[in-house]
UniProtKB/TrEMBL annotation, chains A, B, C, D:
Positions of FMN binding: 125-127, 244-245, 288, 303-307, 329
Organism expressing this protein natively: Pedobacter quisquiliarum
Enzyme class (EC, first level): lyase
Physiological role: This reaction introduces a second double bond into the aromatic ring system.
Assembly mode: Homotetramer.
Note accompanying the cofactor annotation: Reduced FMN (FMNH(2)).
GO molecular function, one term: chorismate synthase activity
Protein name per Swiss-Prot or TrEMBL: Chorismate synthase
Family stated for the protein in its record: Belongs to the chorismate synthase family.
Pfam family, one: Chorismate_synt
UniProt GO cellular component terms: cytosol
Amino acids binding NADP(+): 48, 54
Involved pathway(s): Metabolic intermediate biosynthesis; chorismate biosynthesis; chorismate from D-erythrose 4-phosphate and phosphoenolpyruvate: step 7/7
């Protein structure tokens, strides 16, 4: 059934395939009168687009966004905002060899099993190209959040076993500047250097490597998130796990919290005027599924990209043994381009919860 | 806004507070003619209820389920199934000291911040007691899945730093038998022994400890899960993260997959009649968000229970420094009782996806 | 699939069958801190319950509402409000003759065709008894609307061909008083007298008769309703058509508007301070699907009750000719008891749109 | 909030304004492998487009549909189908006089009241041009229904007080042929002649006139529609009432049913092999909200178009008295172009219910 929609009040629906006409999104529920800065949307897309550096795919797409509806004289009108990112680099012939062969750890087999038909050109709808639409929509969500002073920042915190140190002393502006000074998008310069070397080496070997993206949200008011099923971290988790190649999500103390005792894990409240603080933040800014005003933080684990430059054994659509030859233009490591996708998904979840929270109590 | 509903076609809505009239659930969308075994539902609730053993809370609740609607002559009728679990042990006076004080790492403060009003008796709606309704609904989802031969099994795979070994050679029946032979619900007897000792010691110290639950799903047909936002693992992740105290979710290779190379992580397809297998299963049975017919597996991290038997500093509703005195009847470790909740949530997600998949293609 | 839910933000889900344990409803999304007057809810249910007068069914049900969750110290807490109305008069044996026979113009055949199973006791879920849950939920919606000064009034405007005159000069309070002075619930005393005589005569003949309910909404602010699919009148129409026995809905000029010219139908705007008025109100208070601040008005057509005291030809579950014998305790005319159901459904739609409108624009 | 989506499983979301880039729709949930005939979609759009005859608006739009996604090698792939109909005739200057003036019985005032901003060019999103997207989506729904043998037919049954006779003896093919032989789209040639004369006269007077569209659905299997809120006729009613200018909906006996007795209104079941028939069809093919296999029929009332060629008094955005001068290119009567919109909306509702019904019972 239908499954291309995210959010309940700030609701997005994406469409489009990797090698069809284009990729797009409808945002239904954006409040009217929000100033929409198209250059900002484009700048966000530029952080995701292919061909940025030597450690990303060399495929060329300008990913130019086009407004189809919902914006009038520079502002949202309250009606659906439709954005289209036309495909340019549609070398469909590159992919004809995929028609009857199932690439390992791709969605080829499962799409055929589910639908009995598959747009085999470049992964079709299962391609990470679909996330361009999310980034465009996420940029508008960020514009809405900025009106409320909420800031989101993500960076590459691990490539393979290379991990960045804790950077929580820096401001969002400092973090952003340091992140954009290097092509791997890690806010710690020394770690970034190692990561780039690692990815470059992996790329030369025709292989790929996994990594992690860490994200923080600052200045989020207390009260966002719905108890029970739609907890703030549950919605963030679903949004992150819906990004291609993500295999894990944790917030606050995360997996390491499962090894702790209550007496050390509990975040003691400190009196601090109208907005209480906590001494520690193992809760990751969320208690009972609802934001408590502290910094929200979470980590996302990405598996290595499945397309490698090696020949691999596999099967074809008839169930017979076959072989995939390594070729094409793909990312040796997906996390540098995933940073803005993680931010976009976080922004979409927060914008939705911000609107949902308007009705939590009588005025 | 409304947030107490999970699922789109096999849809549940829970209600109820810890110390009100009771806890309940409506299941809307269960197909008609499903035989409903009430004793089975009760036996599932018995795996979750308090007071089972020395390592769980000594609170007494029989958690007896009552059918309000939707079942006629032992079968579902296609109309909403409403189940009620009345509260029995409503010692509200135990909780009056919580009225104006925010317990650390509980939802007291965030509920007040969101709603401006809070049922302070035992956590009200934020109490894990709400999960009884999920277990009851999950039992009916399991009955539906059994009709399709799908089996779900979870057990305690870690308490603190004590980890169970891999048990993937055992059948579901063997795993279930071994799990139910001990009170910590770990399917490995030797590890279970250590875990019980650990929890018992923690309990005597008035402290609590975190842990992990691992879950597998066998005989799931290929094709379940919706691409893009409602990926099978994204729905599983959200469902697990919506359980009280969960701080992390990973499937397949999970967080460790982020340290791997594509050449080792890719799951090579093996010809095997109509249903292909993969040589390895780092994909955790899910590719592109859709089940591939292999075993689905995932892990869930639980933080330590916040209620400890120590005095703790905190603040009150006026923002002033206050103290919480350690008392009451709580779990030193939540995972033994959480095993059946994890299974229930997995069953609810799968039942929903099973129904959703009916319309993936023309007959 | 699931279909027992109405509303998106003020969302209700009903459950229960005519002769099972009871009828109930969950309201998910009611803002916190709304004072809940249980006596008011009960008084609304009393307007719908059977056995009120000689022109309604003589079946006896006290329809006593019971709160299961969501209300604490007299106020809504923001969590789901669950209400239960236990069944009392469960004479199941009265209905055993319906097990294998399809009553004409009832839902017996269609339920069997859809589900392959049917709770044949008194119509099961298809019984109008389900509307008791709607009235209880609607009473809470009315309490929310009262906080915003919005008032809803419905009355019986036609029984058969007996039509009430236009009463738009009266205040809501006057209309309510005049309506409750007679058992048919028509606000015009002279017409009420004729209607009662008509229904009493029909009843003596063992027959039934249709009728109409007219509803007005006053003091509704401009801006409620969503353009395109969820227009205010489209949501009202769906809500009314979902009431048992309703065969038609019209608002403003309605069907007679289809015979008019634009030059007479257009409602000319009149300058009037901050809130413009219109000279006429053929728009029925709604333009482009959005309220314009004028009085909203609509009419609902009810077919005659299908259960009559005559013997009728029909078929049984095997498709063979059979006969239904006229007996039981049923309403000769449903509209007097339907008045409060129409009001409840209107209140539920308006409450939902009121909450939805909170996010129409940036503050 | 978001309100541009219709349907739950066969789900459409429309976007676009009258004088922006274009009008479009995403269909999410169309089963895979459905052959998609683009010429058929275009032919349906041609029935709605302006400039068809002397009795429709003379505005020129080719309304050429463009596929953005979801169709591969002539078939649906199960992923979202996005369709775009670019605007051509964007004479924005024609509408600059509307910027600050509220046209009577249009949505100008209510959009401003709701959003505080309005795309004033030709009605923006409130323009009936939005229905082009519905017709395109409805064409795909019809292709799905054809696979199941379900046929839908609508025609103009009234213009002003000129009413067409009952034509139930004719086949769908005959009805279609007779309807398309005249420009008013009434299947009765004699009545069509009168209607055309009437509209032509009204047009010459610079006025407009209302009308009715009647619709039948044949070969619909028993079992479609969900009981309680999502009754088949409630969904049809909402869909019809969401069409611009619709003020009323009735099915089966409709408003006249409210004047009947139960003894004449009841539809007696007749034994007839596996699928029972009823002797009469006052139920309009729907009982208890579920189709019974008989012909479904309903009527839709359209008010006269608000734009007339006369000068009218009104107010401006400042609340001051103003005047609208009659000019522009508009329809004197909307029903000839609305016929295909009514069919499209009926097809969308039925396609959704067809998919929803797949899970009504265990296989």
């Amino acid at each position: 059934m239908a499954g291309s929609t995210l959010g309940q009040l700030f609701k997005i629906s994406t469409f489009g395939e990797s090698h069809g006409f284009g990729i797009g999104v409808i945002i239904d529920g954006c409040p009217a009168n929000l100033p929409i800065d198209l250059e900002y949307i484009q700048s966000e897309l530029d952080l995701r687009r292919p061909g940025q550096s030597k450690i990303t795919t060399q495929r060329k797409e300008s990913d130019t966004v086009q407004v189809l509806s919902g914006i009038f004289e520079g502002k949202s009108t309250g009606t659906p905002i439709a954005l289209l990112i036309p495909n340019e680099d549609q070398r469909s012939k590159d992919y004809s060899h995929n028609k009857d062969v199932y690439r390992p750890s791709h969605a080829d087999y499962t799409y055929d099993a589910k639908y009995g038909i598959r747009d085999y050109r470049g992964g079709g709808r299962s391609s990470a190209r679909e996330t361009a639409a999310r980034v465009a929509a996420g940029a508008i969500a960020k514009l809405l959040l900025k009106q409320h002073g909420i800031a989101i920042f993500a960076h590459v915190s691990a490539v393979g076993t290379i991990e960045a140190p804790n950077l929580s002393d820096l401001s969002i502006d400092e973090l952003y500047l340091q992140r954009e000074e290097n092509i791997v998008r890690c806010a710690d310069p020394a770690t970034a250097h190692q990561m780039i070397d690692c990815i470059d080496q992996i790329r030369k070997e025709g292989d790929t490597i996994g990594g992690k993206v860490s994200c923080i949200i600052r200045n989020c008011p207390a009260g966002l998130g719905e108890p029970v099923f739609d907890k703030l971290h549950a919605e963030l988790g679903k949004a992150m796990l819906s990004i291609n190649a993500v295999h894990g999500f944790e917030y606050g103390s995360g997996f390491s919290g499962s090894e702790m005792r209550g007496s050390e894990h509990n975040d003691i409240f400190i009196p601090d005027g109208t907005n209480p603080r906590t001494l520690t933040n193992f809760s990751g800014g969320i208690q009972g599924g609802i934001s408590n005003g502290m910094e929200i933080n979470f980590r996302v684990a990405f598996k290595p990209v499945a397309t490698i430059m090696h020949n691999q054994q596999t099967i074809n659509a008839a169930g017979e043994a076959s072989e995939i030859k390594g070729k094409g233009r793909h990312d040796p490591c997906v996390v540098p381009r995933a940073v803005v996708i993680v931010e976009a998904m976080a922004a979409l979840v927060l914008a939705d919860q911000l609107l949902r929270n308007k009705n939590s109590r009588l005025d």
